[in-house]
Specification:
Blueprint: H1 18-52, H2 54-90, H3 94-128, H4 140-154, H5 158-173, H6 178-200, H7 210-234, H8 253-285, H9 289-325, H10 329-357, H11 369-384, H12 386-401, H13 405-428, H14 435-444, H15 446-459
Helix pairs in contact: 1-2, 1-6, 1-9, 2-3, 2-4, 2-5, 2-8, 2-9, 3-4, 3-5, 4-7, 5-7, 6-7, 8-13, 9-10, 9-11, 9-12, 10-11, 10-12, 11-14, 12-13, 12-15, 13-14
């Protein structure tokens, strides 16, 4: 259907042709498969640790929330530089890609040293923030002990993870999504086998519980890093940016200034957003280990369904970035509209399945009926809010692709710290409100974020080529 000006109207505005979905599939399916496998193994990992007991599961959950802040800082840093990489690739500028890769490697070292410093010297105090009396579920001292052991082991995996992110993100931005997917699959399978052997003590190995899960993760991260690094250097013909990438670490000063101005706000945003998310989870932990365990089960299961729209963020970033870099401004508006619509459709489908299947999953865990019941309620809230999450996620990556990083900072982190964290802390302090009710009210706040995102996208403030 078309309007009087010949423009598409109705639902057709949001639905692409076969060529559009082929292009989208080439980008998003490898990412989706890798994320699906990774999330599935994380689920099995979580279930295996949960089978050992509530304390080990809760300890692992707390540490992973803290490591989540480091991971998101790394993703934000790579993504901030990746805005330039994708647009350089769109204009076929090999030297520009090489310079952004060098910047990524240097940034990885800085973030690695900072992360190690925080976890080594303040890790125990951070874990203690999540341990509160409440209910009859779990032993706090035991949970803290398991968390400490798990964290110390996980620190050995930060180096390969940081290096792998610099390489894999550059490969994806240059159109090579299959290799990171294959390396991720190999690492996932290795992690799964290592979990089974080291958590439960198979084939003569000691039963290490949560610490075994950490060791398996570290081994798999080293393997994934080696696969990606070796492949990249052996295929320099396909990835010419790697040639002479280490001959010098010099990055042109004008590019450094541009990255610091337009890219590094993403790192700051991810730091504040991830720490804000962790602060929200810490609010729920004040209701005791019952809430910690239920939130862990809910988020782990929900992530298995959310990968559909989460993976779309990568597709939005790459496709929109490349079209902006090529100066295809008329085409990119249509692309954005259809990408967001497809992401929301995926979220709706996933949410319906999650809502119906929610009661089945907590049975996999060796925990109390109280924890299981709360986990079901939290999963159903997440299922209902899926389309809100999908729109906000896609809107964030659209704004980011055009280098509007200060706007994304306000859209993401300012919203979280100014509104969501204080509201969560206020509501959770009211003992009359159940945890699930507080969670539902706080997630509903995302309606406001969606409204702001819609206005910003409609105005086209993100439509910029930043590498000319």
């Amino acid at each position: 259907m078309y309007d009087k000006a010949g423009r598409e109207s109705g639902l057709k505005k949001y639905i692409g042709d076969r060529a559009f979905y082929r292009m989208l599939g080439a980008v998003v399916i490898p990412v989706m498969l890798q994320n699906a496998l990774s999330t599935f193994v994380n689920l099995l990992d979580n279930v295996m640790v949960g089978a050992v007991g509530t304390e080990q599961m809760s300890g692992v959950s707390i540490v992973n929330q803290l490591l989540f802040v480091f991971n998101l800082c790394l993703f934000g840093g790579m993504g901030g530089v990746g805005i330039f990489t994708a647009q350089y690739y769109g204009r076929k500028d090999r030297e520009g890609i090489r310079n952004t890769f060098r910047f990524k490697m240097m940034l990885s070292v800085v973030l690695l040293l900072g992360g190690l410093g925080v976890f080594v010297f303040a890790g125990g105090d951070l874990v203690a923030l999540f341990l509160h009396e409440g209910g009859e579920t779990g032993d706090i001292a035991l949970t803290q002990m398991y968390a400490g052991r798990y964290m110390r082991m996980m620190l050995w995996g930060l180096l390969p993870f940081a290096m792998q992110q610099a390489y894999a993100s550059t490969l994806r931005e240059c159109g090579e999504t299959l290799l990171p997917m294959k390396a991720g699959i190999a690492a996932i399978l290795l992690n799964l086998a290592g979990n089974w052997i080291l958590i439960f003590g198979r084939f003569g190995a000691p039963a290490m519980g949560a610490e075994g899960a950490a060791l398996a993760t570290v081994i798999s991260r080293w393997a994934e890093c080696l696969i990606i690094v070796v492949w990249t250097h052996r295929h320099s013909g396909q990835m010419p940016f790697i040639r002479d990438a280490y001959r010098g670490l010099r990055v042109p000063l004008p590019l450094v200034k541009q990255i610091m101005l337009k890219g590094m706000p993403l790192l700051i945003n991810e730091l504040l957003w991830s720490s804000g998310t962790t602060a929200v989870n810490q609010c729920y932990s004040t209701r005791g280990l019952m809430a910690v365990a239920a939130m862990n089960i809910s988020s782990t299961i929900a992530n298995l369904f959310n990968i559909l729209w989460i993976s779309m963020g990568t597709a939005v970033s790459i496709i929109v970035g490349q079209q902006l870099g090529a100066g295809e401004f008329d085409r990119v508006r249509v692309t954005v509209r259809r990408l967001i619509a497809f992401s929301m459709a995926l979220a709706l489908a996933a949410g319906l399945v999650l809502f119906a299947a929610a009661p089945l999953f907590p049975r996999l865990y060796n925990t109390t009926d109280e924890v299981r019941a709360l986990a079901v309620q939290l999963m159903r809230v997440t299922a209902c809010a899926g389309m809100l999450y999908a729109f906000c996620h896609s809107a964030y990556f659209v704004l980011r692709s055009g280098g509007r990083t200060w706007i994304t900072f306000l859209f993401d982190s300012a919203y979280l710290w100014v509104l969501k964290v204080p509201v969560t802390r206020l509501l959770i302090s009211d003992a009359a409100l159940q945890v699930a009710a507080v969670f539902a009210l706080c997630e509903a706040i995302d309606f406001l974020k969606c409204a702001v995102g819609y206005i910003l996208i409609k105005k086209g403030v993100w439509m910029r080529n930043i590498v000319d």
